[in-house]
Amino acid sequence: MNLEVGTWPAFAIQDIAKNQKFPYTKQGAAKDISKKAIGSFVDDFVAGKVEPSIKSEPIPEKQEAGATVIVAKSYQDLVIDNEKDVLVEFYAPWCGHCKALAPKYDELAEKYAAFADKVTIAKIDATANDVPDDISGFPTIKLFKSGSKDEPIEYSGARTVEALAEFVRDNGSHKVAAAEEANAEVETDGMPQQAAAASGIKDKIKEAAEVVKEATLNEDEPTDSHDEL
Prior knowledge:
Layout: E1 12-15, E2 20-23, H1 35-46, E3 68-70, H2 72-80, E4 85-91, H3 96-111, E5 119-125, E6 137-138, E7 140-144, E8 153-154, H4 161-171, H5 179-183, H6 196-220, E9 227-228
Parallel strand pairs: 3-5, 4-5
Antiparallel strand pairs: 1-2, 4-7, 6-9, 7-8
Protein backbone atom coordinates (compact mmCIF):
# COMPACT_ATOMS: atom_id res chain seq x y z
CA MET A 1 0.00 0.00 0.00
CA ASN A 2 3.10 2.25 -0.08
CA LEU A 3 2.61 3.20 3.57
CA GLU A 4 5.35 4.83 5.58
CA VAL A 5 7.11 2.00 7.41
CA GLY A 6 7.17 2.33 11.19
CA THR A 7 4.45 4.97 11.45
CA TRP A 8 1.36 3.41 12.93
CA PRO A 9 -1.59 3.51 12.91
CA ALA A 10 -1.71 4.03 9.16
CA PHE A 11 -4.23 3.54 6.39
CA ALA A 12 -4.72 4.04 2.67
CA ILE A 13 -7.46 4.08 0.10
CA GLN A 14 -7.10 1.55 -2.72
CA ASP A 15 -8.74 1.78 -6.13
CA ILE A 16 -9.10 -1.92 -6.92
CA ALA A 17 -10.20 -1.38 -10.53
CA LYS A 18 -7.06 0.61 -11.43
CA ASN A 19 -4.81 -0.98 -8.80
CA GLN A 20 -3.92 2.46 -7.47
CA LYS A 21 -2.94 3.27 -3.89
CA PHE A 22 -3.59 6.46 -1.96
CA PRO A 23 -1.83 6.28 1.43
CA TYR A 24 -2.76 8.84 4.06
CA THR A 25 0.47 10.70 4.74
CA LYS A 26 -0.52 13.97 6.39
CA GLN A 27 2.12 14.95 8.91
CA GLY A 28 2.17 17.39 11.80
CA ALA A 29 3.92 17.31 15.14
CA ALA A 30 2.44 13.82 15.08
CA LYS A 31 0.40 12.20 12.35
CA ASP A 32 -3.03 13.78 12.44
CA ILE A 33 -5.52 10.93 12.61
CA SER A 34 -8.40 12.99 13.90
CA LYS A 35 -11.87 12.49 12.51
CA LYS A 36 -11.71 15.91 10.82
CA ALA A 37 -8.33 15.28 9.12
CA ILE A 38 -9.24 11.82 7.87
CA GLY A 39 -12.64 13.05 6.72
CA SER A 40 -10.97 15.81 4.70
CA PHE A 41 -8.63 13.26 3.12
CA VAL A 42 -11.56 11.07 2.05
CA ASP A 43 -13.43 14.11 0.70
CA ASP A 44 -10.36 15.14 -1.33
CA PHE A 45 -10.05 11.61 -2.71
CA VAL A 46 -13.68 11.55 -3.82
CA ALA A 47 -13.18 14.95 -5.46
CA GLY A 48 -10.17 13.65 -7.39
CA LYS A 49 -7.70 15.92 -5.60
CA VAL A 50 -5.42 13.16 -4.26
CA GLU A 51 -2.65 11.83 -6.49
CA PRO A 52 -1.95 8.08 -6.32
CA SER A 53 1.30 6.91 -4.75
CA ILE A 54 3.48 5.14 -7.31
CA LYS A 55 6.35 2.86 -6.36
CA SER A 56 8.84 2.93 -9.21
CA GLU A 57 12.43 2.24 -10.06
CA PRO A 58 14.25 5.07 -11.86
CA ILE A 59 13.61 5.30 -15.60
CA PRO A 60 16.68 3.78 -17.30
CA GLU A 61 18.91 6.41 -18.85
CA LYS A 62 19.73 3.99 -21.65
CA GLN A 63 18.12 0.77 -22.86
CA GLU A 64 20.54 -2.12 -23.27
CA ALA A 65 20.24 -4.85 -25.92
CA GLY A 66 17.42 -7.29 -25.34
CA ALA A 67 14.00 -6.63 -23.86
CA THR A 68 12.99 -3.04 -23.17
CA VAL A 69 13.04 -2.32 -19.42
CA ILE A 70 9.85 -0.71 -18.15
CA VAL A 71 9.32 0.88 -14.73
CA ALA A 72 6.13 2.25 -13.22
CA LYS A 73 6.94 5.82 -14.26
CA SER A 74 7.42 4.80 -17.91
CA TYR A 75 4.64 2.19 -18.07
CA GLN A 76 1.95 4.48 -19.51
CA ASP A 77 4.25 5.81 -22.21
CA LEU A 78 5.87 2.55 -23.29
CA VAL A 79 2.88 0.21 -22.96
CA ILE A 80 -0.36 2.17 -23.29
CA ASP A 81 0.11 5.52 -25.04
CA ASN A 82 1.39 4.30 -28.40
CA GLU A 83 0.29 2.39 -31.50
CA LYS A 84 2.60 -0.58 -31.03
CA ASP A 85 1.91 -4.19 -30.13
CA VAL A 86 3.65 -4.48 -26.75
CA LEU A 87 4.51 -7.84 -25.20
CA VAL A 88 5.20 -7.41 -21.47
CA GLU A 89 6.76 -9.90 -19.09
CA PHE A 90 5.93 -9.23 -15.45
CA TYR A 91 8.72 -10.89 -13.47
CA ALA A 92 10.30 -11.16 -10.04
CA PRO A 93 14.10 -11.24 -9.55
CA TRP A 94 13.87 -14.25 -7.22
CA CYS A 95 11.66 -16.30 -9.59
CA GLY A 96 13.45 -19.37 -10.98
CA HIS A 97 11.10 -19.65 -13.95
CA CYS A 98 11.78 -16.00 -14.82
CA LYS A 99 15.54 -16.58 -14.72
CA ALA A 100 15.19 -19.55 -17.08
CA LEU A 101 13.09 -17.48 -19.49
CA ALA A 102 15.38 -14.41 -19.48
CA PRO A 103 17.84 -15.39 -22.26
CA LYS A 104 15.03 -16.62 -24.52
CA TYR A 105 13.04 -13.45 -23.94
CA ASP A 106 16.04 -11.26 -24.79
CA GLU A 107 16.57 -13.33 -27.94
CA LEU A 108 12.93 -12.72 -28.88
CA ALA A 109 13.47 -8.98 -28.41
CA GLU A 110 16.50 -9.04 -30.68
CA LYS A 111 14.49 -10.77 -33.41
CA TYR A 112 11.94 -7.94 -33.27
CA ALA A 113 14.52 -5.15 -33.10
CA ALA A 114 14.10 -4.45 -36.82
CA PHE A 115 10.38 -3.81 -36.26
CA ALA A 116 10.71 -1.41 -33.31
CA ASP A 117 8.18 0.96 -34.87
CA LYS A 118 5.46 -1.69 -34.63
CA VAL A 119 6.42 -4.13 -31.84
CA THR A 120 8.02 -3.77 -28.40
CA ILE A 121 9.21 -6.74 -26.36
CA ALA A 122 9.37 -5.46 -22.79
CA LYS A 123 9.73 -6.55 -19.17
CA ILE A 124 9.02 -5.05 -15.76
CA ASP A 125 10.03 -6.07 -12.24
CA ALA A 126 6.57 -6.29 -10.69
CA THR A 127 8.03 -6.45 -7.16
CA ALA A 128 9.85 -3.10 -7.44
CA ASN A 129 7.22 -1.25 -9.48
CA ASP A 130 3.51 -0.68 -9.13
CA VAL A 131 1.66 -2.10 -12.12
CA PRO A 132 -2.00 -1.58 -13.04
CA ASP A 133 -2.45 -5.21 -14.08
CA ASP A 134 -3.67 -8.16 -12.03
CA ILE A 135 -0.63 -10.39 -11.52
CA SER A 136 -1.06 -13.67 -9.60
CA GLY A 137 2.21 -15.42 -10.42
CA PHE A 138 5.58 -15.03 -12.10
CA PRO A 139 6.32 -14.85 -14.89
CA THR A 140 3.12 -13.44 -16.35
CA ILE A 141 3.27 -12.44 -20.02
CA LYS A 142 0.65 -10.24 -21.66
CA LEU A 143 0.24 -8.76 -25.13
CA PHE A 144 -1.11 -5.21 -25.29
CA LYS A 145 -2.14 -5.00 -28.93
CA SER A 146 -2.45 -1.73 -30.75
CA GLY A 147 -6.00 -0.42 -30.61
CA SER A 148 -6.99 -2.68 -27.69
CA LYS A 149 -4.63 -1.75 -24.87
CA ASP A 150 -7.43 -2.07 -22.31
CA GLU A 151 -7.89 -5.77 -23.16
CA PRO A 152 -4.45 -7.43 -22.91
CA ILE A 153 -4.13 -11.06 -23.97
CA GLU A 154 -2.34 -13.30 -21.48
CA TYR A 155 0.12 -15.83 -22.88
CA SER A 156 -0.13 -19.45 -21.70
CA GLY A 157 1.91 -21.37 -24.29
CA ALA A 158 5.36 -22.91 -24.32
CA ARG A 159 8.18 -20.62 -23.24
CA THR A 160 10.21 -20.86 -26.40
CA VAL A 161 11.33 -18.09 -28.72
CA GLU A 162 9.37 -19.61 -31.61
CA ALA A 163 6.12 -19.99 -29.67
CA LEU A 164 6.31 -16.46 -28.27
CA ALA A 165 7.01 -15.04 -31.74
CA GLU A 166 4.01 -16.87 -33.16
CA PHE A 167 1.85 -15.48 -30.34
CA VAL A 168 2.90 -11.90 -31.15
CA ARG A 169 2.41 -12.44 -34.89
CA ASP A 170 -0.98 -14.16 -34.60
CA ASN A 171 -2.50 -11.91 -31.91
CA GLY A 172 -0.93 -8.52 -32.55
CA SER A 173 -2.70 -5.87 -34.59
CA HIS A 174 0.28 -5.43 -36.91
CA LYS A 175 0.75 -9.19 -37.56
CA VAL A 176 4.53 -8.79 -37.60
CA ALA A 177 6.62 -11.93 -37.96
CA ALA A 178 9.98 -12.10 -36.19
CA ALA A 179 13.10 -11.56 -38.30
CA GLU A 180 13.89 -15.25 -38.88
CA GLU A 181 10.28 -16.06 -39.76
CA ALA A 182 10.23 -13.27 -42.34
CA ASN A 183 13.50 -14.46 -43.90
CA ALA A 184 12.30 -18.05 -43.96
CA GLU A 185 9.60 -17.36 -46.57
CA VAL A 186 11.09 -18.93 -49.70
CA GLU A 187 9.54 -18.81 -53.17
CA THR A 188 8.64 -22.38 -54.19
CA ASP A 189 6.76 -21.81 -57.46
CA GLY A 190 8.30 -23.83 -60.28
CA MET A 191 10.32 -26.09 -58.00
CA PRO A 192 9.92 -29.86 -58.51
CA GLN A 193 7.57 -31.67 -56.15
CA GLN A 194 8.93 -34.08 -53.55
CA ALA A 195 9.29 -37.64 -54.88
CA ALA A 196 6.76 -40.11 -53.50
CA ALA A 197 9.34 -42.38 -51.85
CA ALA A 198 11.14 -39.49 -50.20
CA SER A 199 7.82 -38.14 -49.04
CA GLY A 200 7.30 -41.23 -46.89
CA ILE A 201 10.72 -40.75 -45.28
CA LYS A 202 9.89 -37.12 -44.64
CA ASP A 203 6.74 -38.15 -42.77
CA LYS A 204 8.75 -40.52 -40.58
CA ILE A 205 11.27 -37.79 -39.78
CA LYS A 206 8.46 -35.39 -38.95
CA GLU A 207 6.86 -37.92 -36.58
CA ALA A 208 10.17 -38.51 -34.81
CA ALA A 209 10.79 -34.76 -34.51
CA GLU A 210 7.38 -34.27 -32.91
CA VAL A 211 8.14 -36.96 -30.31
CA VAL A 212 11.48 -35.31 -29.45
CA LYS A 213 9.84 -31.87 -29.32
CA GLU A 214 7.10 -33.12 -26.96
CA ALA A 215 9.63 -34.80 -24.69
CA THR A 216 11.76 -31.65 -24.60
CA LEU A 217 8.80 -29.45 -23.77
CA ASN A 218 7.70 -31.77 -21.01
CA GLU A 219 11.20 -31.70 -19.56
CA ASP A 220 11.63 -27.92 -19.85
CA GLU A 221 8.13 -26.96 -18.75
CA PRO A 222 7.19 -28.41 -15.36
CA THR A 223 3.51 -28.61 -14.50
CA ASP A 224 3.93 -25.79 -12.01
CA SER A 225 5.37 -23.20 -14.39
CA HIS A 226 4.65 -20.15 -12.25
CA ASP A 227 6.07 -18.89 -9.01
CA GLU A 228 3.07 -17.67 -7.06
CA LEU A 229 3.06 -14.28 -5.40
